[in-house]
Amino acid sequence: MTNHPPEPFRIKMVEPISLIDREEREQALREAGYNVFGLKSNQIFIDLLTDSGTGAMSQEQWAGMMKGDESYAGARSYHRLAAAIDEIFGFDYFVPTHQGRAAENILCAVALQKGQYVPSNMHFDTTEGNIRARGGRPTNLVIQEAFKGADPHPFKGNMDLEKLQDFIKEIGPKQIPFGMITITNNAGGGQPVSMENLRQVASIYHEHEIPFIIDACRFAENAFFIKLREEGYEDKSPLEIAREIFSLADGATMSAKKDALVNIGGFLALNDKKLYQRVSNELILREGFITYGGLAGRDLDAIAIGLREGLNEEYLMYRLKQTAYLAGELKSAGIPILEPPGGHAVYIDAGKLLPHIPQPKFPGQALVAALYIEGGVRGVELGSVAFAHPDPDTGEMVYPEMELVRLAIPRRSYTQSHLDYVVDVFKKVAQGKKEISGFKITYQPELMRHFTAQFKPLP
Ligand code: PLI
User: Are 155 and 191 in contact (CB under 8 A)?
Assistant: First the structure.
């Protein structure tokens, strides 16, 4: 295998993209309130906002959609999905949901009470939002290496086991309705969790009778990192590794928009029958009947096929190497990135790149705006805009440890020359970085403000 394996597919259908001129980009960003979520997609050249639901489906997935069974109950599509989930995840029960956050919402609705805590390595923003929306307290207990951008630790998504033990002792297991871990750790750089750490986390939760739920969005990428980096797994297939991961847990929330290679969908899988029954009732109220959960039958077929394709080794090698290629080129250009690169995205340390902009003036947001203006590239801020929040006890603002900007790579969508273009844009932004200034928020909602907040550039 070469260092940069060529794309293991050829292009059968194209979607034109083009770069509007600089003045138009400036106007578009101004009209979007300096929030790139407000841009129209035709105002963007290379869209690295997210890898969620933005990938290209395969010919098998499109063909599978034609077989979609749209029966309200008991559709064949549901049973095909059930077979794939059983093969990979092995939980006793599952319900489809329209995407990952719907699975989180339903889990929190039935299992979480006000004032309770949910530990994880790091919760993603939707998980955090769903826990807070029910009056719960999401708690991040990732290892300290996760916050050291240049530390080469191979599993920076690992949970700090000592912190987890101490936390459970301090809070008491009765106040923890379930414990989580996110694989890979998206909020902390798309970093993997080792099998050894997963085993220990499971054992700690279970010792205290706390159900263990895995946020499984990028489980296939995590499984492949384990194969590449953890002793004893080099000869195992990603499927075998995935099965071992999920055998440790009591359930999983899944956004199929990531490692199931589809544009929409998700599920919540569980072993506890009583919990599943309550989940089913909530699902019927909010999402749809238990055999379709807010999706069309054809969507279920696409997920069933995508789940298996997402575990293909050739695909996973290309996927991780493509991300590593972008990371390597940015690093060579002197851009401070999180190392080693994660699975689905490259994370830039905007706090380090723009040290003249303090956290309350949002250096990550400033970098995202500069990338768009310079070259029509859309990234996303995962720093203080996304994660700073008032402490529920003191009301004081709590800032995240890092001001990150994420360039997420849609699956099977962009070629290496697109990535080379992104690197060129970055080089130009870095050359003029002293001229970049911070932002002030002029509007924000109470929860998950980064999606709709409006900004004003500071002088
Ligand atoms: O976007 P959803 O509702 O299908 O999935 C929510 C979700 C849950 N957990 C994790 C780790 C995620 O990364 C996640 C969604 N991520 C998005 C949208 C992203 O841009 O990374």
Answer: yes
Residue 47 CB partners (closer than 8 Å, separation 6+): 41, 54, 378, 410
Q: What DSSP string runs through 43-91?
A: G-SEE-S-SSS-SPPPHHHHHHHTT----SSS-HHHHHHHHHHHHHT--
Per-residue model confidence (pLDDT) at position 3: 65
Beta-carbon contacts of 169 under 8 Å, excluding residues fewer than 6 positions away, are none
294 lines ligand 1 (CB under 6 A): no
Q: Of 200, 339, 289, 262, nearest to 64 (Cα)?
A: 262
- Dist. CA 126 → ligand 1 center (Å): 7
Among protein residues, the one whose CA lies closest to atom 9 of ligand 1? 124
**Whole-model pTM?**
0.95
pLDDT tens figures, 159-175: 999 999 999 999 999 99
Q: Give, in order, the Cα–Cα distances in Å from 65 to each of 58, 203, 290, 308.
A: 11, 40, 20, 15
- Give first-to-last CA distance, the chain, whole Å: 50
pLDDT at res. 83: 98
Q: Hey, what domains does the chain have and what are their CATH numbers?
A: 22-51+313-457 (3.90.1150.10), 59-309 (3.40.640.10)
Rounded Cα–Cα distance for residues 206 and 201 (Å): 8
Q: Which atom of ligand 1 is nearest to the CA of 257?
A: 4
For the record, the structure tokens of 208 come out as 């205290």
d(Cα 4, Cα 1) in Å, to the nearest integer? 8
101 lines ligand 1 (CB under 6 A): yes
Q: Could you give the CA distance from residue 402 to residue 147 in angstroms, rounded to a whole number?
A: 7
